[in-house]
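Intended use. Records like the one below are meant for learning the mapping from a protein sequence to its folded structure. Do not use them to infer anything beyond what is encoded.
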Amino acid sequence: MLGTQGHRGGSSQVSTVQARRRQEPQRLGAFLANLRHYVDGQLGLLVEVSARTEFYSGRLMDRPGVLEPTVKELRPAPSRKASANRMSPAGISMFYASADPQTAIAEIAGHGPEPYAMIGRFLNTRPLRLLDLTRAPAMPGYFDVQRHGELRMAIFRRSFVAAITRPVIPDGRQHIEYTPTQVITEYLRLVPETIIDGIALPSAQTDEKTYVLFFNGEDCAAAEELNLDGTRPLSPQLASIGSDEPPTFTLAHDDVQVWRVRRAYEGELFEPYGARRRSDVDT
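Structure written out for the chain above:
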């Protein structure tokens, strides 16, 4: 009898676990669907960034002169070489940038031990529509039943931003840690009715603004190589398709600088060593 009850109890637990697993895709789908409120809702999180806004992006290097101060060295990698990042999976090229050079350095400093960084100041050639998660959302009224979904997401925004910007230790397992934010980014990039050009987030290092922009290296060009009207010179490749559209971002040679990277660490006392020893003696 006891064995039968134990068997039934085990079967019940298995059924419960299986039921929960079946619900997980539905819960994930519901969560992603609610994210659309950030873009398609009326929370005031969409902003238009004017042309010629500064976007800083860079690379670490062992010593000055190792990298050429060109757009080729600082633009996003081509898709075939794009590695996994916090907001983009391997093979999907995106432009990671910051609102100021110090934040750009802080964002890349943890990626390696190199003591120098080459930072470029990119300028956008056209207005960009961004989802700005550094802004406080416009809170819908509690009694506006039709906007309860937006209200929940507005309240959840702070926790959501903290979760997707928390530091990830580059210990070889970061590609696993990146998966949730990659899924979220792809959803916001592809699914909402309102098309956005990228997302603005607070830096986990400086709390200043950082960006993940939905552009790749082909959207960046050297300012000195453009025609007077801002279009690209018609290369044989462009001429074959009849296109000379201006790039979305330009980088001038004079807007590239080399910085020395200073990494600072500090400790916070958790528990005096003597206090633990006294506690052990008292017990």
